[in-house]
Amino acid sequence: MTAQALKALTQLGNGSDPASREVLDALPVAVYITDSEGRLTYFNAAAAELSGRSPQLGVDQWCVTWKIFLADGTPLPHDKCPMAVALKGGEIVEGIECLAERPDGTRFWFTPYPAVLRDARGKITGGINVLVDITARKGAQEQAEQAALLLSAIVDSSDDAIISKDLNGTITSWNKSAERLFGYTAEEIVGRPVTLLIPPERLDEEPRIIARLKAGERVDHFETIRRRKDGKLLDISLTISPVRDAKGNIVGASKIARDITERRRAEAEILRANRDLEQFAFSASHDLQEPLRSVKIYSELLTQRYNNRLDGQALEFLGYVRAGATRMEALVSDLLGYTQIAKREDRSETVDANAALAIVLESMAGSVSESGARITSEPLPTVPMHAAHLQQLFQNLIGNAIKYRSRERTPQIHIAGESQGEGWTFAVTDNGIGIAPEYKEKVFGLFKRLHTNEEYSGTGIGLAICHRIVAEYQGRIWVESEPGRGSSFRFTIPRSRDSGG
Amino acid sequence: MIEDNPADVFLIREAIEASGIKVPLHIVKDGEEATRFFDTADRDNAAPCPSLVILDINLPKKHGVQVLQHLRRSHRCRRASVIVVSSSNAAKDRQDVILNGADAYFCKPSKYDDFLKLADLIREWFPKETK
After folding, report:
1. CB contact under 8 A, A304 and B5
2. CATH of region A158-259, choose from 3.30.450.20, 3.50.50.60, 3.40.50.1220, 3.30.1330.10
3. Which among B11, B110, B112 has the least Cβ separation from residue A329?
4. pLDDT at A3
5. pLDDT digits (tens, 9 = 90+) for A321-333
C-alpha cells in the first residue's frame, strides 16, 4: 500500500458522492470510512468479506473487524486500534501487523492503513482505513519460521558438529555438538576464523577447501585432524557443502564434522592385532618345521639302519611316527602359506584369468590326467588382481574338485567367469561328491575338514587360503552344492573404487 | 661346524664323511663360542683356523649372520669357505647370508638322502690347497 494510493483514496472524500462510491465498491481491497467520531459511514464488499460481518453503519465504531489482536496475541480494544488513534489526532501508525477474528471464529492477518479526512480548514471530518490481507504471506512466513525452527532443532540434536562459515572463513553458526567436540561455546567462536580449529601444520588445507567450495564442489568425508580449544588433536571426518543465497550465489559453507578418533583407534588396534597374529602364525609354523625335520629323518634312519633288529610292531609304530610327521609337515607348510598370502601392494595390477588358468592347469597336469578329469572353461575376463592370488584360487579350487571327485563317474570340472555390474564372478563347478548344506560355511574355516585323512588327505587350509585371498579384494566366496551331485565354488572380485573401473 | 642341534651335528658329520674329505673337525655349539674360536685363532698362531665353516644360521647367544660378519673380519680365518645350513627356505634368509659373505646356502631337508647332498657342497667349497 503506497502513500500515494492512500492519498488518492482520501481525495475521494467520505464516500458520499456516487462516483467515489462506485470506485470504492469495486476495489478488491477492504476499505471503510468513519465520521470524526469513528462511527462507520461506509464499508465496501471486500471489507465485509474480509471481516466476515456486515457492520451496522452509524453504530459500529472505529473498526470494521469483530475482534483484533496484536501480533503477539494481546487483544487490542477497538478504541485503541490504529484508526481510533489516528482519528483522535494521534500518530498515524502504518504498516503494523494485526490479527483479527471473524464472528465464525476464523482468523486472518492484516495491515491497516488509516488516514484522516479533513475539511478545508483542516478539521478532522472522518477517517478512511484500508485493510490489506496478509494472511497468505504470514502463513508462508510462519511455515518458514517453523521449518527453520525444526532445522535448528535437528542441527542442535545432531551427534555431529555442524558449523557454518562464510567465504572468508569466519564461523557463522555453531551447534551443541560442535561445542562438545571442539570445546568452544557458540558465543566464544561465532564471528571468529575457522582456522582456530586447524593445527598449524594443516593450515594449507583451508584455502584448498575454500577454493573447492567457491567452485561449487562439495568436500566429502575428508579425513583430517583438527584441534580442540584445550589443544588436544582430534581425528575427524569433514563433509563440507557450499551454501547458496536465494540468487544461487555461493555465500558460505556448511560443515559437518564427525569425531573418528575412536574409530581410528579401533582400526589401528585391529591392524596391530592382525599383524601380531600373522607374525605369531608365521613364527610358529616356521619354528615347528625344524623339530619335525629331525623326527622325520631319524625315524627314517631307524627304519633303514635297524630294520633287521626291530620286530614287526616296532616297525609299524615307526611307520606311524613318520606318517604323523609327514602330515604335520604338510599342515605347517600350508599354514605358512596361509600367513604369507602377500598383501596386494600394486593396486593397478591386472591379470588375464585365461593365462592364470593355463599356468595352473599345466602345473596340475599330473593329477588331472591321473584322475581322468575332463576340464573345460569359458573365455575368462581380465581382472584387477595379483596374478599369484588368482592362480592360487584356481589351484586350490580345481585341486579340491579333483580330490573330492565321485568314484561313480568321470570327473568333470568347468571354470567360468564373467564381468558383472558390481565386478567379476568366477565359478569352479564339478560333478563330485558335493557338500552337505550344514558345512557350506564351515569349509572356509582354518583346519576345517569334513573327511578323515584315510578318505581324503588334506590339511583344511586350502579353502581358508581362498577365503583370505578373496577377502583381500573385499570379495565373497561361497559354495552351491547338491550332495552327491557336485559343487560349484563361486567367488566375486568387486570393482574397487580406486581402480576407477 | 657351528651347530647347536645334536641331531643335525650327527647328520652333518655323516655328510662330511660322505664327502670323503678327511681333516680335523671342530664343533662349536653356539654363536659366542664360535666368535671366541676365531678370536683365539687371531691371537694364537698355533690355535686351529678353519678352512671350511659349516654354519647353522639359527644359533643360541649370537645369530649366524653375526658369526659370519665376525669371521669375515678375522685376519686369520676370513678366507675360510662358509656353507650356511638352515631350515629356512625363504629367499630373504638366503639373500641375507650371501650378502654377508657366505659362499653357499643349504636348506636342511627332511629326507636322509637329501641331507647327504650337503656332501657335494662340501667337496665343491673345500679349499683346494688344503685338500
Report:
1. no
2. 3.30.450.20
3. B110
4. 66
5. 888 888 888 878 7
